[in-house]
Each structure stands twice: as structure tokens, then as C-alpha cells.
Write a structure and sequence with these properties.
The longest helix has 15 residues. This protein is 35% helix and 23% strand. The chain has twelve helices and 20 strands. Helix 2 runs parallel beside helix 5, helix 7 packs parallel to helix 8 and helix 9 packs across helix 12.
Length: 383
């Protein structure tokens, strides 16, 4: 692109690219681990002991062996989901008694075939090698409830978004569902420096990064960011959401958008690994409201949609944050907000979103089947 054709006030989207699904994200992550020469920072919510999990660990160990400083920040809270589905193996954690009770409650809610099964709690040799390596700082004992996922390589490249370290984001899950998710790659050391500054000073305003965090001070921005985007929609509002249980303010904002004539599209999974009945209760409630008036379209996809994205005609927000009470008020989260313009990343997002809707099924209110009791139980359990 010629320099004269660049926007007068770019929002840095020319340094940002979209990594669609784990099949694109994991090769890039491994490639960047290979390239790193000084430092790798890995911040993760779920890290399973499976093929992908072990491969990432092996690559990090090789990096540490060649002198790279590796900082691993793995939130202990994620072990509940690591043990409550799939192979029930965690790369970093062994559950205590209270955690075992919570795991069984999750199994009973969404994965009954795993309820009561013996948990595989031994740590792998790879974990022990990383833990004991002089070039590795392993911070995996704290339960901060930080749901964000990101990697930083030599403070020049950053990859963030919704993809955890687990096989199902690359292959499929134990029920055969193929996951669809996003990561965002940032290749500008000045932007990476801005994020590191934002991490240390959460209340500092930044046009690109939106975070929820409790440390070093409590700063929860994402609810207001989503509300602002919904309220500013004039023609179009698109929501792709993994776990969708809006608080009253979000629902009211969506209703107001519909009343002012905004075309609202929502995409959820036909079958979600968690909160499936809650997702369907939410869209059923929206479709059944007096505000829908032909302006609301709901679609369901065969993918296990793990994407968290809200987009109007001006802005796009995507990252780790779902639209529900827990994400807005309890969990640490990280998203990016970019202009919905002619930049490569915005064009790629729109292409990806449109392809998803094209391959999905349009849903009428009468078509939605769900269990109201289970929806209520899911909301309680997932708080």
C-alpha cells in the first residue's frame, strides 16, 4: 500500500492481523517461540496435558535451554474446566478437595459421563523440567480468576484472544465439535509496550486495549466498552458469542438499538460445551421481545463457537471476554478494539464473520429448544 493512501490518523490496525482458529494460531505461536531470543511471556487460563499442550511445553523448554527467559503465568482457576471435560488432564495443576467438589458439580451440569471418574492428577516430566529450569519463572499457584490469554515474544510480537492451549482448539473436542475461535497478532513493539504499560497501569486509557483486572488495582472496562459499542450502533450490530447471558443493561442497550432501527445479528453454537441452555434462553428471550420487530436475526452454527466479538459499523471488539455477569464483574479479561474500516484486519474480520453467518442456520423463536431448569443451574454454577 502506498504511503499516501494510509489513513491520516491510523489506529494501528496495519500492525494487527487475525489468526482464525487454532489451526492458524498454534503454528504461528510455535514459530514465534522458535524465533524468540530474549524473553517469552505466556499468560494462560486453560492449559491441558494433551498433544498441543505438550508440544507448546516442549518448545518453551527448548527456548529456555537456548537462554531465553520464559515467564509462565497460569491461573489456577482454570483447572476447574481442565478437569471437568475432555481428557480431564491439566498441564500445571492438581486439584485440592474443594476444587474436586467444584469439578464434580461442573461434570454433573454439562459432562455427566465424566461425573465420579478418577482424575489424572500426576504432573508430566515436561512440567517438572519447566518448573525447575533456571530460565523459567513458573507462576501457577495463584487463583486470580484471570480468563485472558496472551503471548509476548521479545516485547516485539504479541498474540492474544480466545484460544486456550488445548487439542480441541486445533482438532475437535470429545463430542466431535470443531472449534472456531480468534487470536489477534500484533507486530509492533510500540503497541506491545503500550500493553505492558496498560498491564501495570490498568486505569490508563488506551484506544486499542480493553481489560478487566483486579491487579495492581481493580479496573473493569469491558462492560462499558460493549455498552458503548452497542449504543453507538446506527445501522448494524453483530454479536458472536460463546457464552451469552447479558445483564439487564446489555439487554436494554440491544433493545434500544432495535427500536432505533439497527439491524442486529447474533450467532451462537447449536451445541455449546458450557451454558448451552443459557445461550438459547438468551436468544429466545430476545426473539420473543416486542423490540425484535423484524430487525433481529439469530443464527446457530455447527461449530463450537468460542469467539467473543461485538461489531458495529464503526468499531470491532474481540478477545477473551464473554457477555455475561461473571466476565463483566469477576474474571480478568483482555480484548482489542479496532476501527471497522478498510484496514487489513477489519476486512479480514468482516470476511470471516460473513463466512460464518453464510454457513449457519437462521433460527426462528419457535425453533429453539432448551431446558429452563438447566439454564438456571448453569447460571448459578458458572458464577
Amino acid at each position: 500500500m502506498y504511503k499516501d493512501s494510509m489513513p491520516k490518523e491510523p489506529d494501528n490496525t496495519y500492525a494487527i492481523s487475525l489468526l482464525e482458529t487454532g489451526r492458524n494460531a498454534f503454528p504461528e505461536i510455535i514459530y514465534q517461540i522458535h524465533l524468540a531470543r530474549q524473553e517469552i511471556i505466556l499468560h494462560m487460563f486453560i492449559w491441558r496435558e494433551d498433544r498441543i499442550g505438550l508440544q507448546i511445553a516442549e518448545e518453551l523448554l527448548k527456548a529456555a535451554d537456548r537462554g531465553v527467559s520464559v515467564v509462565i503465568e497460569k491461573d489456577r482457576y482454570g483447572l476447574l474446566l481442565e478437569y471437568a471435560e475432555e481428557s480431564q488432564r491439566s498441564f500445571c495443576h492438581s486439584p485440592d478437595l474443594l476444587e474436586r467438589i467444584q469439578i464434580q458439580a461442573l461434570c454433573l451440569s454439562d459432562n455427566r459421563e465424566l461425573f465420579g471418574k478418577r482424575l489424572h492428577t500426576d504432573r508430566s516430566e515436561l512440567y517438572q523440567k519447566l518448573k525447575e529450569h533456571p530460565n523459567v519463572i513458573m507462576q501457577d499457584n495463584r487463583k486470580t480468576k484471570d480468563h485472558s490469554k496472551y503471548y509476548i515474544f521479545d516485547r516485539q510480537i504479541m498474540i492474544l484472544g480466545g484460544i486456550n492451549i488445548e487439542d480441541k482448539e486445533y482438532y475437535s473436542d470429545s463430542r466431535g465439535r470443531v472449534y472456531f475461535d480468534y487470536m489477534v497478532r500484533i507486530s509492533d513493539e510500540k503497541i506491545v509496550s503500550r500493553f505492558l504499560d496498560k498491564r501495570e497501569n490498568p486505569e490508563k486509557q488506551d484506544d486499542l486495549f480493553r481489560i478487566n483486572t483486579k491487579e495492581p488495582v481493580r479496573c473493569f472496562e469491558l462492560k462499558e466498552s460493549f455498552l458503548e459499542l452497542i449504543n453507538e450502533a446506527e445501522r448494524e450490530l453483530t454479536i458472536l458469542m460463546a457464552y451469552f447471558a447479558p445483564e439487564k443493561e446489555i439487554l436494554a442497550a440491544i433493545y434500544r438499538a432495535l427500536e432505533r432501527g439497527v439491524n442486529v445479528r447474533i450467532l451462537i453454537s447449536k451445541s455449546s460445551n458450557y451454558m448451552d441452555d443459557t445461550n438459547k434462553l438468551t436468544v429466545s428471550k430476545l426473539l420473543g421481545s416486542k423490540h425484535a420487530s423484524g430487525k433481529l436475526s439469530v443464527f446457530m452454527t455447527d461449530y463450537m463457537l468460542h469467539v467473543k466479538l461485538v461489531m458495529n459499523e464503526k468499531r470491532i471488539i474481540t478477545g477473551s471476554c464473554n457477555i455475561n455477569k461473571k466476565a463483566f464483574n469477576t474474571l480478568g479479561e483482555l480484548c482489542v478494539a479496532v476501527n471497522n474500516d478498510d484496514s487489513p484486519v477489519a476486512c479480514r474480520v468482516r470476511e470471516s464473520v460473513e463466512a460464518l453467518f453464510k454457513s449457519s442456520v437462521y433460527i426462528h423463536g419457535a425453533d429453539i429448544r432448551f431446558n429452563r431448569f438447566m439454564a438456571a443451574a448453569e447460571i448459578v454454577i458458572m458464577r
